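Subject: mismatched residue count in predicted assembly?

I count 337 residues in my input, but I want to confirm that the predicted structure covers every chain. Input:
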Amino acid sequence: MESLIWKYIDGECNSDEKAQVEHLLKTDLHFSEQFKQSSELNLQLQHFSTVEMSEGFRQKMENKMILELAAAYPAHQEIITIWWKIGLSLAGIGSIILALKYSEGASVIFNFIPEINARIITMGAWVAVGFVLLISLDNIIGKWSEISRTTGMMV
Amino acid sequence: MNELLVDKGFISRLKTGDSKSIKVFMDTYGRFIYHVTYKVLLQASEAEEATQDTILKVIKALDTYDLKSSFKAWCYTIAWRTAIDYKRRLKYTVDIHEGMEVISSVTSDAIIHQSETQSNIKTLLSHLDEESRVIISLYYLEEKNIRELIDITGLTESNLKVKLFRARKELAKHAGKYFEQI
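Triage response: the counts match. Full output below for your records.
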């Protein structure tokens, strides 16, 4: 009988079941009492079973989400990865050594380096300078994005 | 509690830290997550910790979310597991009498009555196991939408209905103790 009562309360009874419940409500005192109790319980659950978080906690969570999202998904994707940085640094060091080898009064310790065309060296130096500028720009954009995100400033 | 359409755009905006998307997320899913964790843990402070933990897990796993599935169901799974973990870790047993909250500095009879009823409901629900408690509260939260509940919990319709019936039967057994009118 209880399952029939809950089906009725939930509006899931077919017409026969509905008629049965309505008949029992008129004729069966025990059923009628049980129906009343279940309806009241249903009403109480409907009104009071939801819970709300406090406004303070909600605000705290929103702020925390901003920080966590910034950490988990950086706004700025690095153009140059760490391996590129290592490679370019090595190229930079190489360029400096070559520059020292061909400078006036260069030390004999650079003699182990084979002779290289001056144009190739110049070109290499410019490429190295270009990459250094690119790395710096990458870092500046990264920092800028981070600041604008945490402060809410538009980039 | 209506589910918001979570698409690629919403996920992307959320990932960029868009404040409007964060508010929408908290309104829809934050509240839902808190509801689930609270129903498992039955204590606001513990539920807040579990909610925070769940939301951080959701944030970190956003890239793994399959857009074809329900975002709410995905959040539910994470919230449920996190709350159960908390419950196990804390190993506290819910004393049903502790559920009675002290009502202080209330100003009207209506508020007193509402607080008492809320407290009674909380105490009454503590007679159920965690799963039944969550199912029954979600049933009312989702305005008795069984389809929605199936999506969220992943249970079959018959299994869900059996669990719902058993939970309400159990509640009816104890209801008289807490509500004079029942």
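Residues 1-94 of chain B form a domain with the Rna Polymerase Sigma Factor; Chain: A fold (CATH 1.10.1740.10). Marking this ticket as 'not a bug'.
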